[in-house]
Write a structure and sequence with these properties.
Elements (H helix, E strand, L loop, with lengths): L3 H6 L6 H8 L2 H10 L6 H17 L6 H26 L7 H18 L4 H25 L4 H22 L1 H6 L5 H8 L1 E2 L3 E2 H19 L1 H11 L1 H6 L4 H27 L10 H11 L11 H20 L4 H33 L32 E3 L10 E3 L5 E4 L4 E6 L5 E7 L3 E7 L5 E6 L2 E5 L5 E5 L18 E6 L5 E5 L10 H6 L4 E7 L4 E9 L2 E6 L5 E6 L4 E6 L8 E5 L4 E8 L5 E8 L2 H7 L2 H10 L13 E6 L5 E7 L8 E7 L2 E6 L5 E5 L9 H6 L9
Antiparallel strand pairs: 1-2, 3-26, 4-5, 5-6, 6-7, 8-9, 9-10, 10-11, 12-13, 13-14, 14-15, 16-17, 17-18, 18-19, 20-21, 21-22, 22-23, 24-25, 25-26
Helix pairs in contact: 3-17, 4-16, 5-11, 5-14, 5-15, 5-16, 6-7, 6-8, 6-14, 7-8, 7-14, 10-14, 11-12, 12-14, 15-16, 15-17
Length: 723
């Protein structure tokens, strides 16, 4: 359900064109496009297709099916060598021996087949083992003996070249006269897969897919990338640096040997010039594809893009009649240009994203209700929170949410990833209940007394009564038509649990991370959503998209609907989850004088609402002027930005019908600035705040002294009968 227009449009005024300009900004589209990881090789990708289009235009029959099939068969051999080089470069090294390993594998395959007449499967295994052995030697020298990759692989190149030259000359006659009529050998060299695709090209695609999965989805791949980024940091993180380097060079040898194997099956010939210069071509392809020479950045797809560029360029120049030296010169020049473009693009792309990613929109709210002490409104300022008792003074850091269990123990999260529990007389006993990591935000107890927690940057987690931490979900269904990948949960904020056990929670923004959530306020866009996780099925589903910073979530007393706050729109909405209105959304409270945060039940059937900041005419004016906010963020230090007033703690009480009946204030925020949560429990109200160093507690005259949240949701626990 897309409700962005409903939430924003109902509260926006002014020119339609102005609103549309800021809502559907081309700069917004460009910023999200540039932020995609697959945009990093954008320039090589365009260059690849440009070269193909050029040679197709100037070369007769270049785009024909027969020529494309022949080119694909030749390209596959080079593709394996490029992947061999690319893996080592990502690890922060270099392998100058890939061309020599290719030639050595080609010679090994022909000798095993033509001279020793071994079965083709044995030839395949023997050839790959030969390449893997060379890679193991390189890996042992580089990984365990700490020799320099450039010199080590250069020596390997020289030795292998000498071996190939000697053996080729000595056994040239037997190799030339030998023949093999094995259908498998013929299929490897000249067969077709899927009716039209050359068999070696299909095998390259399969290996490339496996390599992509390993690099991006497996622990060894993550270790390899981490190694290239910083070996020191990788070692401190517990990664086996020597072993990872060793197996990287082994894989390089295996891939180069695979290319040599297919080359032998295709041409059945060898010579001193086989694979000569391929190490330079492979390195050029790797850099052209966007694999960083400094290591730590690259994908299989980028390697193959670079391989296509080099292959098409060399093949095209040869067809145009350019001599070998000219082709080598062109490749060298291209390599120099590629290195320069790679560095400039990587540097300026991030700078460009930083400059254009923030895209403020128009948010025009009606004039805020008066909060003056003599205004006579339910929002009139008072000092009812000023005399609150302090719990855990200077022992907590930013208790964003607080909650109590059936045994009257008080829980809160802290900015350093802990869940603290206070118990005993006056809550004087403090203990670490669980270590979550991330930033614990909203909390709720389920029917089994598990503490369910929204963890900023991580997702939805649970803590069992014995303190065991477990994950519920960290992703939801992906939107098909969004450039921004919204499958991962970036800022799960607050939650509540319905009578059927389903967990409804808000994700405040999908464009910003936990550390930069305040920029979402400067933007004012509908970047958030409401999500449901069903423990019974383990499925997570996005219910409502395009909400303007959804925050506090509370299940209504009758369990038929969910109340949630839209912070930047200063409003409370109701989403029906049961009954005749199921699936409908309605506005419950509009135009609050502050920015709403958590919502929780009250003992008399009403609800408590925390307001993390108070509106001001200056900030309301800034929200009506996106250009002003953009200039402010770019030109003014963050501590001088115009922001809502966060130095007045405020809690509001409202009824089921959305009528505000009273408010509680701490003018000046002497004890409770930036109030983000409150919980009623047995006649008292407990207060938490995002920036506070304490938990507050005040008495609620007239409140039910036996009421608590757990019983309100799940009923009183059964009492065992005396036997």
């Amino acid at each position: 359900m897309n409700t962005g227009v409903r939430y924003n449009g109902a509260l926006l005024h002014g020119g339609l064109l102005r609103r549309l300009y800021h809502r559907w900004s081309l700069k917004l589209l460009l910023s999200e496009l540039l932020a995609k990881r697959w945009m990093e090789p954008a320039i090589p990708f365009l260059l690849m297709w440009g070269l193909i289009a050029y040679f197709a235009a100037v070369t007769p029959n270049y785009a024909s099916f027969a020529n494309a099939s022949a080119l694909g068969r030749q390209f596959a051999d080079m593709g394996f060598v490029v992947m061999a080089m690319g893996l080592v470069v990502i690890s922060g090294g270099i392998d100058l021996s890939v061309g020599a390993v290719f030639a050595f594998a080609n010679l090994t395959a022909l000798m095993l087949l033509q001279m020793f007449h071994l079965p083709v499967p044995v030839v395949i295994v023997g050839t790959l083992l030969a390449g893997g052995m060379v890679g193991a030697i390189n890996g042992y020298l580089v990984g365990y003996l700490k020799s320099r990759p450039f010199l080590t692989t250069l020596v390997t190149l020289i030795i292998l070249r000498a071996v190939v030259d000697l053996l080729s000359q000595r056994y040239s006659v037997p190799l030339a006269m030998g023949s093999d009529r094995s259908w498998l050998w013929a299929y490897l060299g000249r067969g077709l897969a899927l009716w039209t695709v050359p068999s070696n090209l299909m095998m390259l695609a399969v290996v490339g897919l496996v390599g992509h999965i390993m690099l991006s989805r497996s622990r060894p791949g993550w270790h390899l990338t981490a190694l290239g980024s910083s070996r020191k940091a990788a070692r401190h993180a517990g990664i086996a640096v020597e072993r990872t380097l060793f197996f990287t060079y082994v894989m390089s040898g295996l891939l180069a040997a695979a290319g040599g194997l297919f080359y032998a099956a295709r041409l059945s010939s060898t010579g001193s010039d086989t694979g000569a210069g391929w190490e330079v071509n492979a390195l050029t392809a790797v850099v052209l594809g966007g694999v960083s020479l400094s290591g730590g950045r690259g994908t299989v797809a980028r390697m193959l893009i670079g391989a296509v560029i080099v292959f098409v360029l060399v093949n095209g120049l040869v067809r145009m009649g350019l001599p070998g030296p000219m082709t080598s010169t062109a490749l060298g020049a291209l390599l120099l240009v590629a290195v320069g473009i790679d560095m400039k693009w990587a540097k300026n792309r991030l700078k460009t994203i930083q400059k254009i990613y923030l895209n403020p929109t128009v948010v025009e709210l009606r004039p805020a209700p008066s909060t003056a002490a003599d205004s006579g409104t339910p929002y009139a300022e008072n000092d009812r929170l000023r005399d609150s008792r302090e719990i855990g003074l200077d022992c907590v850091e930013g208790p964003e949410d607080v909650i109590l269990d059936r045994e009257d123990r008080l829980y809160c999260g802290t900015r350093d990833g802990l869940i603290l529990r206070f118990s005993g007389p006056d809550f004087s006993t403090r203990e670490v209940f669980a270590r979550i990591g991330g930033r614990p935000l909203g909390m709720a107890f389920d029917r089994e007394d598990n503490l369910i927690i929204c963890v900023g940057g991580m997702g939805l987690y649970g803590v069992k009564p014995d303190g065991t931490v477990y994950k519920l979900t960290d992703e939801t269904n992906r939107s098909w038509f969004k450039l921004n990948d919204d499958a991962r949960l970036r800022l799960a904020d607050d939650l509540d649990i319905a009578p059927d056990g389903k967990i409804y929670f808000s994700e405040a923004t999908i464009r910003y991370e936990m550390h930069s959530w305040h920029l979402d306020g400067m933007e004012g866009r509908a970047n958030g959503r409401m999500i449901c996780f069903d423990p019974a099925t383990g499925k997570t589903q996005t219910l409502i998209k395009d909400i303007c910073f959804p925050n506090g979530v509370c299940t209504a007393h009758d369990g038929q609907s969910i109340l949630f706050a839209s912070t930047w729109l200063c409003s409370i909405f109701r989403y029906w989850i049961a009954g005749p209105k199921k699936g409908q959304i309605e506005t419950l409270i509009d135009n609050l004088p502050g920015y709403p945060d958590n919502i929780n039940r009250a003992s008399d059937g009403s609800y408590w609402l925390a307001m993390v900041g108070i509106r001001s005419p200056a900030f309301d004016l800034a929200m009506r002027n996106p250009g002003f906010r953009l200039r402010m963020v770019k030109q003014v230090p963050p501590d001088e930005w115009i922001l809502p007033g966060i130095n007045n703690g405020c809690v509001v009480k409202f009824t089921e019908q959305g009528e505000v009946v009273e408010s509680l204030w701490d003018p000046g925020g002497r004890k409770h600035a930036t109030l983000t949560s409150m919980r009623e429990h047995k006649g008292k109200l407990y207060l938490g705040g995002l920036e506070n160093n304490r938990i507050g507690c005040i008495d609620l005259p007239g409140a039910d002294p036996d009421w608590n949240g757990c019983d309100s949701y799940w009923g009183k626990p059964e009492v065992a009968r005396d036997l």
